[in-house]
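Revision sheet: structure tokens.
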Amino acid sequence: MSSEEKWTPNPQVTRDALGRIDAAQAGYPTCRLCGQRAIALDKFGLCSKTSQAHQDWRASVRADRKAGAR
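Predicted:
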């Protein structure tokens, strides 16, 4: 492709690639909060994201566990 030709995405190629990814990750666990597949989840059942929602979930579980331990 020359530098003057504009690249355009091919939807079928994208679907094929996403299908292969889905097949490869079929057995992976999913995050309890966002549903993202992950190779491993943390002790709270969450993926490694550090979004505010994930941080809040972890803090809530810690608080519940601490309250239950008393």
